[in-house]
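Onboarding guide, step 5: your first structure request.
Type a short instruction followed by the sequence, for example:

Predict the 3D structure of this protein.
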Amino acid sequence: MENAAPARFVNAWIFLNDDYLPGTNYYSNDSCYQSLIRNNVYQSVDFLHICFATTMPHSAGAPAYTLTMGEPATPIPAHPGGYTNKDYLQFIIRDARIQNPGIKFIFTLDWGYKPTLSNIFTVPGLTDAQCAAVFARNLAIAIQGYGLDGFDFDWEPPLSGSITAAQMSLLLYAIRQQFNQLEKENKKHYYLIISPVTGDNLDAAPVNDNVDWLNLQLYGGTTPSNYPGVDYNLFAYGAQFEATQPTTDPNFPGLQTAQAAIADNNQQYHFPIYTNWRLNSGNFVFEQQQQVALYRLARAGVQV
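The system replies with structure tokens like these:
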């Protein structure tokens, strides 16, 4: 093995709708969540992306929108034992910080419902710029209220086609402005991230001016060439340790191994950040083992 530049960060997504093994909940001894704790996996995560946030009216009947933890349409409650995704969010933040006090938490916006972003530009009497500013202010309040460290767009269809490039530009500038204000108040940086599978409606200037990095969903077929003008130093490597077929075998192999992801990055891209989809699929034992291996190898700068 040869040495390469050590990774800046090694991150992961976690999808709170899911419980594996089937029939378990957060506190079941054989659950994917207890496995994260038991095997010290959080020590191998710099940024944990919480999936998925969504938008909702700020208050009953109000036209302005804010950000909230998403819940599945069914079942209700979301998890065995009566727990909700908001409960799981609180449990994960608590337990991950015990194991890794420096871990950062990022709210990832759901990609799968087209009006999630377009709704925020429908406030009567407001221009698009004003709508973006109102939403960004409410988003910042929500991020602070949940005790999180930033926000991430899961940028793929239909979400990526739901607003114009001009509207996305307004959003990025407005959110960064609000995060800069939070940074002054709280003496810490708030992260604005995009995790794209497409470059649709992403102009280079607002991305370069406002975004901390982009987790390219390389496993979805995107490449740096899909983002003309975007600073190459902003790109991060999106790995996938999830299985490519449905499985409830926690040891089932995923699309990649940690070594394969590092080798691919070192040969093709040389990105300084890795983010893994994900930690709690049906093959969660494999995913979590690969996350630990990815962190160990990438942070050491090992070239495989």
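Each response can be followed by summary notes, for example: The chain has one domain: 2-303.
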